[in-house]
Structure formats: C-alpha cells, structure tokens
Amino acid sequence: MTRLTRILRTTAFKLLLLYTAVFSGLSGFLLIYISRNTTDLMSSQIVQTVDAEIAGLSDEYLRGGVRGLVSSIERRARRPDASLYLLVDFAGNSIVGNISRLPTIVLDEADGDVRRMKYDRLESGGEVQREALVRIFELRGGFRLLVGRDLGEQLRFSAILSGALRFWLTAVVVMAGATWLFVSRRVMKRIDGIAATSQTIMHGDLSRRLPVAGNGDEFDRLATNLNDMLERIELLMQGMKNVTDNIAHDLKTPLTRMRTRVETALRASSGNTAIEYCEALEATIEDSDNLIRIFDALLRIARVEAMSPEAGMEPFDLKAVIEEMADLYGPLVEDEGGRLTFEVEGPAEVIGSRDLIAQVIVNLIENALKYGRPEEGAPVISIRAALKNERIVLSVRDNGPGIAGDDVERVTGRFVRLDASRSAPGYGLGLSLVQAIARLHGGTLRLQDAAPGLGVDIDLLPSGQKAVETG
Amino acid sequence: MARECSSKVCPPFWLELVEASDGGFGNGSAVGVSLSFGIHFPYKEVMLRILIIEDDVEASAYLAKGLKELGHVADQAGDGEVGLEMALASAYDVLIVDRMLPKRDGLSVIEELRKAENQTAVLILSALGQVDDRVTGLKAGGDDYLPKPYAFTELLARVEALARRPKVGGDIETSYQIGDLSLDRLAHSCRRGETDIPLQPREFRLLEYLMQHAGQVVTRTMLLENVWEYHFDPQTNVIDVHISRLRGKIDKDFDKPLLHTIRGAGYSIRDTTD
Predict the structure, then answer these.
(1) What is the mean pLDDT of residues A155-162?
(2) Which residues neighbour B182 within 8 Å (Cβ) at sequence distance 6 or greater?
(3) Chain A residues with CB inside 8 Å of B33's CB?
(4) At how many degrees (to 10) do helices A152-202 and A11-78 cross?
(5) Which residues form the HAMP domain (chain A) (predicted)?
(6) How far apart are alpha carbons A368 and A355 in whole angstroms?
C-alpha cells in the first residue's frame, strides 16, 4: 500500500470528506436562501416604487395632459437615481425619457405587466446596456408610457453574494485540507507507532509495550489497555511455557528411563531369563502408568475448570465426608508416625460434588504427609470445618515447615514444585486441582502460615436455610 | 502404586504361568508377551461370555485377545445397532460398552436392553470420565463404569466381579467361608478357625467385599469405590494400609495366608489349597 492510498483510507480522511461536504452544502444552502429572499424582497420593492411613480404620472397626465406628463417625466428623468422613464407616440418615436434605446417589441406589449428587459441608458460616458424591471401602459392617443427601475443595484448585490459563496467554499475546503493534514499526520504518527510496536510484539518480543504519550488522550487510553492485555498475555505465556517445560521434563524422565530399561533388556537378550524380561516389562508398565497418571491429573484439572458450577452439585454432609476421609487416611498417617484429627462445628451441609470435595481433602492430607512434616516430632494433620461469614470454611493444617510468603502465590500453578520438595514424589498438580475444585464451588483457596505449618482454607457454600439460620 | 507384596507371601502369578508353559518367551508359545501383563488371574476355569461393543477396532481387538487368552469367549461389535442385536440375541455374562458409538450411543444401547428386560451386567467404558458422566452412565442402567485409559487388569477385575455378582432378586448370602475363615453378615462376626476376630466396621466392610469376590482379583479402585463409596484418585497407598491392617488381623497369626496381593492389579482372598 502506498502512502497516498493509506492516507486516503484513513478514517480521518473519510470523516473530513464527509464533514466538508455537509458543511459546504449547508453554508451554500444558507447563502443561496439569503440571496434568493433578498432579491425577491428587492424586486417587490422595485415593483412598489414603479407603481407609485405610475400613479404619480397618471395624475400628471390627467391634470396636465401630455404636455404636463412630458414635463414631469423630463423633471424626474434628470434625477440621478435608478428610475427609468420613456414616453413614445403611436409610431414608437421617443418623446421624452432617459432610455436611449430598447428592443422595439417591448413596447408592443403595453399590457401594464411587470417585465424584465435589457435597455441602453444614456449616461455621462455614453450608452450603457443595463437591465431593468418595467411596466408599460398605453395612454389615450396612442402614447405609450414606460416606467421602470434599474436592476443594477440588485445585480451587484447578487454578485457580492455569489462571490462570498465562492470565497466561503474555497475557505472551507482549504481549512478542511489543513485540518486533515494536521490530524492525519498526528494520528498517523501515533497509529504507526502502535502498529510498529505490535509488529515487533507479533514477531515474538512479548516484553515490548506500546508507547504512551502521557497526555491521557484516547490513544493513551487504548495503549494503556493494550499494554495491560499484553502484560496478562505475557504472564499466561510464561505460565504456559513453564507448564510445557515441566511437562516436557516430567514426561521425559520416565520416558527415557522406560526406553533405557527396554533397551537394556533387549541388548542382554541371550543372558536374560523370562523372569528378567517380565520384570523389565512390569517396570515399563509402571512407568507408563505414571505417565498416564500425570495426563489423568492434567485432564482432571482441565475438566474441573471446564465444568459448569451447576453440574453434579448436590447438598451433602461435609461432616460425613471429613469423618470418612479421616477414617480412610487415619491408619496411613498413623503408620507414618503421625496423627490425624478432625473437628466439625455445627451443621456442615454444603452444596457441591461429594467426590470432588473428598478429592480436595485427600490431596491436602497427602500434601501434608509429603511436604508438611516437621523436622522433628510427629506430623499432626488437623481437618476443620466451621461456619464463618455465611460460608463453611474447610481447612486442613499441618505442623510442617509451611510455605514462604513468596511461594504461596506460585504453589497453586500447574507442575509447580517448591525446591524444598523436589525430591519428594509427586507431580506438582495436587494444589492446582484443589484450586480448580475450590473455584468450581464458588470458593477461594487460601494458603497461610499457621505458625507452625501450613493452613489451607477453602470456602464452601452452605446448603439451604439450615446453615444460614445458625450463622 | 506401591507394592507391598514380597514374593514370599504371594509369588507373582506370572511365575505360575511361566512354570506351566514349560518354555521361555522366545519360542512363540501361547504365553508370548502376555496381554494380561504377566498376571494370571486365579479361577481361570470360570469361562465368561463377553461382548465388547466398541468402535475402536484396535482397542476392541486388543481387549478381545486379552480376554481370550484367559480362556473367556469375547465377541466384538463395531457399532451400537449391531451391539444391541448381538446382546439381545445371545446370552452374555458381561457386556463391555463404549459410551460413544456410531449409529446408537452406548447409553441408549443399555437403555434398550433394560427395556427388553435384559439384565446382563454392563461395564461402561468412557473417555469422558467426569464425575457426572459416571452418574449418568449408572442411571442409564450400567453396572460399573471405567474411564479410559484403563489398565487391562482393572478392566478384567471389574468384568469378573460383574460376572459373579449376585443375580438381581436372588438371595444374598448371609455368610461367607474361605478356608477356615468365616464371616457372618447377620451376626457381624468374623472367625478364623477357633478364634474370634474383632473387626472395625470399615474392616468388616472391606473383608465382606473381598469375600463376596473370593477368588477374584479386586483392585484398589474397586475397593475405594465399593467399600468407601468414593470416586477419586489417591496418590498414596492408602488402601494398602487398610489391607495390611486387615491382614494383620486375619492372616498374621495363622499358618496359611488367605489375603493375597496380586502384583500390579490388586488383592484377592482365596484358599490356595482349593
């Protein structure tokens, strides 16, 4: 696209074109309207003057006959104004008047109507062709009298008006052009700046931001919004990159191990017994089971995130679920040398998916077992449910090292494993799932330092009125 | 899945298989690279007639081959219409029905079957695997539900459990007996030989379920679903802990273990001298 076509296609240009057309149309209309009305007014005044003159002259004629009329016309014709007089006899010979020549046919139609005509007038410099409005009467004795008024004044006025109109239109067009040049240069500069930056961003440099001039105009607002969007996109991209890196890492390790194992089993084919083959195969299956488990966990998070909040949500007794989970996990915690306690205050009927909430409790207990062990002493995990601000808060606490403030934000991300727990088994998906489930239930997941240990709180909606009454 | 099985307590079943097959894996014997992942399920003599309704030809063939190797009869149907016809035409022990099928979807196949008063046990396979999918599947008349991808052992355990479930309307046994271990459901008591064994309610439920499926393999997921009635995915060996506690009560002080760990699959309660 050339620069010209680009300019021609800008909105500024189109708007300018439109406004110029509308504006000049309107002002043209106004001027024409004024001139039309003024001319009409002037014409009617002329007609009135002519009529008055005719009335006067008729009186002269009645009183003094032709002689009186002639002297009166002579007198009047000498006055230096726009009035025209001509008296001719029956043969058309001029008797008296200030018109030197006029088309002869004009005098033939002596019907007394107002009419427009061209004539030659005697002036100091000689004969001049002029235009006039005239009335012609036939008098007794074949005399014909023409009384009229010169239109020079009116024509000059029209000329002034049309001159003004032309000047006006030229001025409008010139001003419009100038404005457009100014606007388009300024706007184009800003837009070209934005376009250039977005080109760079599109080519992969997500860290670039659009220029903000700082004067708070609409381009600044747009640029600020776009910059915020870019910020979010960059964050998401970063997150996705991390997830991809982690998936790649977490999947590559077992895949490589699997491959090596199979290769080793194959290479030592002669010396292998069936049992060794089977062991290699079983280990391979276990590795692939692990891979499937990672994918399952990712899929489950994606599904929970995609679920509509209504699907599969029913009121259920959170207390029973906590009891059953404590019953299920109690022996495991005891075997690990720890203690699992639970406490439910008041009714704990909540709305949600029983299995998903059970999964939340399980993930939190398993996390506490894996990462929440104190350096010395027995791990103590406590589950609690209590009504608070019309929400039922489910919390799981441990007495382990807790999570440092900086990491609290990070730890719910997919595949995020804090350095301290890298060596422990797991994929870093547990809390992501817990967060997704909490969100599905319209609640939030809060991690806090329980001094000592980590506290995880989740808000759940109590079901029906029962819970609200007690609250 | 953690393996708490030591080869002394329960020799891996593929060992039996290898010994029986009298040869290595390299000579193309019937054992080959076993589709049952080296796991030989006990009570092989119970032959089941199974219909697989699944449009994925490869998955279906793989499943059928695996089941046939274990001595079952496995027929295949590629779409819902054919599947429904076959299921109505002959008596099967278990139907394995994929949810998404051409011509007629899995759920509607099951609904039609139930309308026709056909009570054949149905295991639903689904790639969807959401919580409410399970519910809709079971509401439509399915008896069990397994999300894809599944382990063959898990599927096999569930198929065998379905095939041997008590018939609808039939009498439910009030007591179970395995070797010298007995469980009385009415008296809520458990005895081994002359010894009374006190059991916690949950342990009782666990043993009851295992004994209901005596001789079969019961997977950890099946236990979680049927004894605790939860459908979620534990990352730890939480079921194993309960099993080992139960084992401590019913097996520890006796000569012969009855509760066996099946490597890579789950658990099985049985009397090996049968």
Answers:
(1) 84
(2) B175, B176, B190, B191, B192
(3) 281
(4) 170
(5) 185-238
(6) 20
**With an 8 Å Cβ cutoff, are B232 and A359 in contact?**
yes
Please identify among residues 197-226 of chain B the ones whose CB lies closer than 8 Å to any CB of chain A.
Answer: 202
Task: Inform me whether the C-beta atom of residue B139 falls under 8 Å from chain A C-beta atoms.
Answer: no
Tens digits of per-residue pLDDT, A354-391? 888 888 888 888 888 887 777 777 888 888 888 887 78
Is B33 in CB contact (< 8 Å) with chain A?
yes
What residue type is A170 in one-letter code? Answer: T
Q: Give DSSP secondary structure letters for A376-440.
A: SS--EEEEEEEEETTEEEEEEE--S----HHHHHHTTSTT---GGGTTSS--S-HHHHHHHHHHH
Tens-place pLDDT, residues A86-138: 888 777 777 887 777 776 666 666 666 777 877 777 666 667 777 888 888 77
Please give the interface size between A and B, counted as residue pairs whose CB atoms are below 8 Å apart: 77
Q: Does pLDDT of B162 surpass 70?
A: yes
B122 neighbors B108 (Cβ within 8 angstroms): no
Task: Choose the closest CB to A312 out of B38, B129, B132.
Answer: B132
DSSP B172-232: PPSEEEETTEEEETTTTEEEETTEE----HHHHHHHHHHHHTTTS-EEHHHHHHHTS----
Q: Cα angle vertex A141, ends A140, A145, to 5°?
A: 65
Q: Is A278–B14 a contact, with Cβ atoms under 8 angstroms apart?
A: yes
Over residues A305-317, mean pLDDT: 75
B146 to A145, A286, B129, B162: CA distances (angstroms): 121, 19, 8, 12
pTM of the predicted structure, to 2 decimals? 0.59
A12-46 pLDDT, tens per residue? 778 888 888 888 888 888 888 888 888 888 888 88
Q: What ipTM, to 2 d.p.? A: 0.70
Residues in A whose CB is inside 8 Å of some CB of B read: 273-275, 277-278, 281-282, 285-286, 289, 292-293, 296-297, 299-300, 303, 307, 311-312, 324, 327-329, 331-332, 335, 353-356, 358-359, 362-363, 366, 369, 425-426, 430
Q: Residue A203 in 3-state DSSP?
A: coil
pLDDT tens column, B5-18: 333 333 334 333 33
Residue of A346, A340, A351 lying closest to A396 (CA atoms): A340
Looking at the partner chain, which of A275, A331, A358 has a beta carbon nearest the beta carbon of B230? A358
In sequence order, what DSSP letters do the residues of A147-177 get, joined into one string? EEEE-HHHHHHHHHHHHHHHHHHHHHHHHHH
